[in-house]
Amino acid sequence: MLVGYARVSTADQKLDLQLDALRAAGCERLQTDVASGASTARTGLDEACRSLRPGDTLMVWKLDRLGRSLPHLIETIKGLDERGIGFRSLHEHLDTATPGGKLIFPIFGAEASPRHGVHIPAAMLADEMAVGESPAVVSPLVAGSTGRRKWGSGRPLL
Q: What is the mean pLDDT, run by run of 10 residues, along the chain of 158 residues?
């Protein structure tokens, strides 16, 4: 089952765009919150996560709708994965149930951990993925060490 989650930061903002996209993508159930990105109280997200069963998928319109921070986002998605639950983000074309999603997700983990030597700007990585780039060609080492195209060009790095 596809379960959608949408969030806006203030009551003045509208959920319509997110909800329409989640419905169009096939979500059977939707949960929402009106809470700032820094807020830890998200009853809609808590309810969505409680209702998910192994084999289900949690879907969001954009990654920033789910996590308060990159480490929180990674922690949340890893927790879902440990329960046998998939995750999809429509805007970033990220699906942890696919080989490409499984390949790219650890890169987000490297970004969140300061002990790793390579830091990848997550927003730039998402921009590259949004234009349909293969995760295999999105490498900061290739881009930085060989003088090839830099991040955000919208074209392959190789």
A: 94 94 97 79 90 96 83 86 94 88 72 44 48 46 44 46
pTM of the predicted model as reported, rounded to 2 decimal places: 0.67
The answer as to whether 35 is a domain residue is yes
Report how far apart, in Å, the C-alpha atoms of 64 and of each of 55, 74, 89, 104, 129 are. 23, 11, 10, 17, 15
Residue 144 neighbours by CB distance under 10 Å: 12
- Looking up tokens 């329409």, which residue turns up? 20
Domain with 32, as residue range(s), is 2-97
Distances (CA, A) of 49 to 32, 80, 114: 12, 8, 28
Q: Is 128 left (phi over 0), alpha (psi -120 to 50) or beta?
A: alpha
In a domain, residue 157? The reply is no
Beta-carbon-side half-sphere exposure of residue 1 (alpha carbons within 13 Å): 11
9 catalytic, yes or no? yes
Q: Which two tokens stand for residue 75?
A: 């922690």
Q: What sign for the dihedral angle of Cα 40, 43, 44, 48?
A: positive
